[in-house]
Design a protein that fits this description.
The complex is a heterodimer of chains A (244) and B (223).
Chain A lengths: L2 E11 L2 E11 L3 E5 L6 H9 L6 E6 L2 E5 L4 E2 L7 E4 L11 H6 L16 H9 L15 H13 L5 E5 L7 H18 L3 E5 L2 H7 L2 E6 L2 E7 L6 H7 L3 E3 L1
Parallel strand pairs in A: 3-9, 3-10, 7-8, 8-9, 11-12
Antiparallel strand pairs in A: 1-2, 1-4, 4-5, 5-6, 10-11
Chain B lengths: L1 H34 L5 H13 L2 H12 L4 H10 L7 H25 L3 H9 L4 H29 L3 H7 L9 H10 L3 H24 L9
The chains are: A alpha/beta (244), B mainly alpha (223).
């Protein structure tokens, strides 16, 4: 099982409370968590990355336990080795493109100076057509370029999985199309498992080998493209499983 | 004229050390209050801001009571280490630090609170230790706001009069800083000395304020 997630978490904000109660399992390399905003998609992604601690349950990635409440396991975000693409990219505004991409590669207490080269960083600068702007600050880039920088920064250290939070929402329509194709090709090239959360049906179309539909913090339905889920697992979830 | 330069040198030494001390303490406490949430946080904030509004003579009195020979701390310092802070330039540094502390601490807290927490999360997911996140992301993004406060605290320490006079006195060449020397010169009717001192201290303060204004937060530093 590539992804095995079972999390429960209650959040309180003033008089309102929100309960996330989600069980999902998948062996697909491309899974999409789909649902309206406020359904708990981002919370789920944050829990996988270690930025939010669930109250109960477990999170396993390709057999590796990242969190297990009963066993008392809760790996720090630093130890989870996942790549995270934030919705508005969260590029470091004080560092240039090359420093941003190389950020996770250096372990010191200070940022390496501008112009320090790593082979892997140079490779991704070339692959994403960013060489000419390697010394520019994120503020000076276009939306598509920013996303490429964020993507390069997330994959340069070869994470075990890539988590994508509404990766195309901040882009205009034509660019969205291009970046979807780029990401899809990249995933196939690297064979890296991805979890993508979105409210855009077009993302589901392209990345949804296994789609989990979320509503009010709960699993509403799931469907697989090739129906490679064993029937027993689908039944165990107690939800509708639809084959395309 | 020689006494003027001695007073200037002493003032710069006291203000420089006080600014350094308030920077380290102000950044640490500002970060703590910006990030940690614990009961009494706002009470602590108010207490730490008090030196900004209390008359310096009152602060000086508190310090005398706290550090003087009759206090427990003062006795302990004297008996254990042979340290007496009253009527010394080190005492002047402490007085100036207490007065200038809120000028670093307040903007430091605000600057840390304005740093986007998502950037810190992004750094942690990339494998950066929490300490390194502070030095590689949080501090570089907050330092402009902090630096403006540091310069203001330096200017404030340079102009410190009341608390310094109470704690360190006015010993020429030893604890007589510029601002105290101005007072002594006017009292003694030495108008030419007073004029020189006033011009020097005004010029230094204008320079500091110009620099602080140039470093005002809002623009993002290249590094």
């Amino acid at each position: 099982m590539l992804f095995d997630i079972d999390i429960r978490k209650t959040l309180q904000a003033g008089s309102r409370s929100f309960a996330l109660n989600l069980q999902l399992q998948s062996s697909s390399q491309r899974i999409v968590i789909y649902g309206p905003s406020g359904a708990g998609k981002s919370l789920t992604l944050k829990a996988v990355a270690g930025l939010l601690r669930p109250e109960h349950g477990h999170i396993r990635l390709n057999g590796r336990t990242l969190f297990d409440q009963r066993a008392g396991v809760n790996l720090a975000p630093q130890a989870r080795q996942v790549g995270y693409l934030f919705q508005d990219y969260a590029l470091f505004p004080h560092l240039d493109v090359r420093q941003n991409i190389a950020f996770g590669l250096s372990r010191g207490w200070l940022n390496p100076r501008t112009g320090v080269r790593h082979d892997a960083v140079e490779y991704w600068l070339r692959a994403f057509g960013l060489e000419t702007m390697a010394h520019q600050l994120p503020d000076e880039l276009s939306g598509g370029q920013r996303q490429r920088v964020a993507l390069a920064r997330a994959i340069v250290a070869r994470p075990r999985a890539l988590l994508l939070d509404e990766p195309f929402a901040a882009l205009d329509l034509s660019l969205r199309h291009t970046m979807r194709r780029e990401l899809s090709d990249l995933q196939q090239h690297l064979q890296i498992p991805i979890v993508l959360i979105t409210h855009d049906p077009q993302d589901v179309e392209i990345f949804g080998d296994h789609v989990f539909q979320l509503r009010d913090g709960r699993l509403d339905a799931q469907e697989t493209a090739a129906c490679h889920l064993p029937a027993s697992e689908a039944l165990a979830c107690g939800n509708t499983t639809i084959c395309r | 004229m020689e006494s003027v330069w001695m007073a200037l040198a002493l003032s710069l030494k006291v203000a420089g050390l006080a600014a350094a001390a308030t920077t380290i303490l102000g950044v640490a406490v500002g970060f703590l209050l910006a990030r940690a949430s614990f009961p009494g946080r706002n009470v602590l904030d108010t207490l730490l801001t008090l030196p900004m509004v209390l008359p310096p003579t009152v602060l000086g009195y508190y310090l005398l009571v706290l550090l003087g020979r009759r206090s427990a701390l003062g006795t302990w310092l004297l008996e254990e280490f042979g340290i007496n802070l009253i009527f010394t330039w080190q005492g002047a540094v402490i007085a100036a630090s207490v007065v200038a502390f809120p000028l670093v601490f307040k903007p430091a807290r605000a600057a840390f609170e304005s740093v986007d927490g998502q950037l810190e999360q992004a750094a942690r997911v990339l494998g950066t230790s929490n300490t390194a996140v502070f030095f590689r992301v949080t501090l570089p993004l907050a330092w402009r706001g902090i630096l403006a406060g540091v310069l203001l605290s330096f200017a404030r320490a340079l102009g410190e009069f009341g608390a310094t006079l109470m704690v360190a006195g006015s010993i020429p060449g030893k604890t007589q800083t510029l601002s105290i020397a101005v007072y002594e010169a006017v009292q003694a009717g030495q108008d030419d000395v007073a004029n020189t001192l006033v011009y020097i201290i005004s010029a230094v303060c204008v320079a500091v304020l110009l620099t602080a204004g140039h470093l005002a937060p809002g623009r993002i530093a290249r590094r």
